[in-house]
Amino acid sequence: MRTRITHALLLAQSITTAVTTQARDNTYDYIVVGGGVSGLVVANRLTEDKNVSVLVIERGYFDDKPEAIVPYYANSLDLDVLISPTSAPNPQLNNDTFSVAVPAVVGGGSVVNGMGYLRGSKEDYDAWEALGNPGWGWDGLLPYFRKSTTFTPPTSDAVRDFQYPDIATIWDAFRSQDDVPVRAGGNAGDGPGAYWLPSTIDGRGMTRSTARKAYYDPVNTTRPNLHLLTGHTAREILFTGSAPSPTANGVRIVSRANNSTRQVYARKEVILAAGAIQTPQLLQASGIGPSSVLKAAGIRVKKDLPAVGANLQDHATTILIFSLTNQSFPNPDTITTNTTYFAAIWAEYLANLTGPISAAPASSAILFGLPHLNSSAAASVTSTKLLSQSSTLTYLPSNAPSSPNLFLSPAVPSPSTPLTPLDYQ
Ligand SMILES: Cc1cc2nc3c(=O)[nH]c(=O)nc-3n(C[C@H](O)[C@H](O)[C@H](O)COP(=O)(O)OP(=O)(O)OC[C@H]3O[C@@H](n4cnc5c(N)ncnc54)[C@H](O)[C@@H]3O)c2cc1C
Ligand SMILES: *[C@@H]1O[C@H](CO)[C@@H](O)[C@H](O)[C@H]1NC(C)=O
Ligand SMILES: *[C@@H]1O[C@H](CO)[C@@H](O)[C@H](O)[C@H]1NC(C)=O
Ligand SMILES: *[C@@H]1O[C@H](CO)[C@@H](O)[C@H](O)[C@H]1NC(C)=O
Ligand SMILES: *[C@@H]1O[C@H](CO)[C@@H](O)[C@H](O)[C@H]1NC(C)=O
Ligand SMILES: *[C@@H]1O[C@H](CO)[C@@H](O)[C@H](O)[C@H]1NC(C)=O
Ligand SMILES: *[C@@H]1O[C@H](CO)[C@@H](O)[C@H](O)[C@H]1NC(C)=O
Ligand SMILES: *[C@@H]1O[C@H](CO)[C@@H](O)[C@H](O)[C@H]1NC(C)=O
Ligand SMILES: *[C@@H]1O[C@H](CO)[C@@H](O)[C@H](O)[C@H]1NC(C)=O
Ligand SMILES: *[C@@H]1O[C@H](CO)[C@@H](O)[C@H](O)[C@H]1NC(C)=O
């Protein structure tokens, strides 16, 4: 026992010095590609068993800048830890291209995201289950949503001090839309409506709660069986066996420091957790994907799998700006225009962990169902294109798999749906 502990401590010391930029071994039980939200959770759970070794390969590095820690920066879109590839031209949107926010940092999206904690609607998850995934419906997932969260209610001081006074007027505007149901809490699976939006904050220190802080830091010095390799990009999944059933047994990785390439191997599984954009990209680069796409790119087809790289449903962002007059003091603009106020609220955060700097900027949200967007200039887009996408396959890329079951439309609840009790846990 004593020897084992000493060994762990020695490893811990080397981990905290330089080891995170080098893979110690060539072979592990599991290799996880991507040290983001899902990758760090899976690696943490697997290494609860001391006899299981896990290597996590992460393209990014640790980020300890204030932007990664202080809730106030939640919407700052820190370009230091994002790679921002440009989308393909979108034929449904005048062939416009868009910058796509793709995280590259230990902790992944949880280090740069807007910190809004909002579960999807029951119908979304039940549609997953209906596609043939028993246990992945709302009822099956709810215990895991609860397991992965600890709800810290805001103190009454926080409610008074964090919310700018004008938020009351904005909520009155939400309520005046009689086709937008006002929901009590955002996490009971109710679907479209107006919500108070909890933030993913670690209530112990009022810092951003990230996958790194919640699932890696607590074990980083005590689990020699967990190894996180930063600054390395997985370029190719390696396989044994051949079509139609190749079996993944390793990964070819490249160091961002010097472009050196090496191969690491998995005795049990290679787990892909590289995010919605880069997981399919890595599969395609490894020969798993639609054969027409792979052939056009000069990649040898190991398995023709048309779904890889198809059916991404993106979370589009449009910024609407309204000019408000006669705002109360303080208001969100006060932070950027009044240096005395800015200094005072920073001092308050540093001294007491309270005030606006301890909160994410967004505390309210409205989710519209598409049918709500029918009375304005958006009508032509929503009615003629987006809405018809629910019932036809017209607007999918030609290589997309075409199961009509993929387009189960969640029901939009009627405004008369009664408010549900607060269900944050
Ligand atoms: C700007 C922004 C705002 C968001 N706001 C919210 C919000 O307010 N609320 C919310 O719930 N969700 C939000 N999200 C979404 C949320 O962050 C993601 O759903 C979540 O991070 C997805 O987890 P993941 O594990 O699938 O991928 P990620 O967390 O992205 O992790 C993937 C990891 O894999 C690494 N990686 C990728 N390719 C490779 C490779 N080839 N080799 C090695 N490593 C690789 C990446 O560097 C990354 O760390 C936001 C996302 C963004 C980008
Ligand atoms: C640990 O793992 C090894 C190899 O995977 C296996 O041979 C051994 O039986 C395991 N030991 C325990 C205690 O599970
Ligand atoms: C978009 O690009 C395609 C391919 O180049 C072209 O056929 C189409 O006319 C373009 N659409 C618009 C709206 O410009
Ligand atoms: C390990 O986590 C602690 C915080 O729990 C942190 O201070 C330390 O820098 C981390 N070390 C590494 C190598 O991540
Ligand atoms: C690695 O290779 C890429 C592509 O050839 C090049 O752009 C980059 O500068 C190289 N990086 C280093 C650190 O050598
Ligand atoms: C490249 O950098 C890695 C660390 O990322 C180091 O382990 C390796 O020795 C370097 N290789 C060469 C050829 O310099
Ligand atoms: C400005 O707001 C105050 C307090 O909310 C209100 O009493 C006043 O009538 C408003 N003035 C105008 C011009 O709307
Ligand atoms: C700026 O903020 C300070 C500190 O909160 C406050 O006393 C002052 O009235 C503010 N100035 C303006 C112009 O609102
Ligand atoms: C911290 O809180 C105490 C007690 O409420 C208060 O007296 C003090 O002014 C606060 N400090 C700052 C910098 O706001
Ligand atoms: C727009 O939505 C409202 C409320 O849901 C509905 O009453 C109306 O019929 C819709 N109009 C059209 C043209 O679909």
Automatic annotation (TrEMBL):
Residues 275-289 form the Glucose-methanol-choline oxidoreductase N-terminal domain. GO terms for molecular function: flavin adenine dinucleotide binding; oxidoreductase activity, acting on CH-OH group of donors. It holds the Pfam family GMC_oxred_N. Keywords: FAD, Flavoprotein, Signal. FAD binds at V105. Transmembrane segments: none annotated. Residues 1-23 form the signal peptide. One of its GO terms (biological process) is secondary metabolite biosynthetic process. Its cofactor is FAD. Belongs to the GMC oxidoreductase family. This is Glucose-methanol-choline oxidoreductase N-terminal domain-containing protein. The lineage of its organism: Eukaryota, Fungi, Dikarya, Ascomycota, Pezizomycotina.
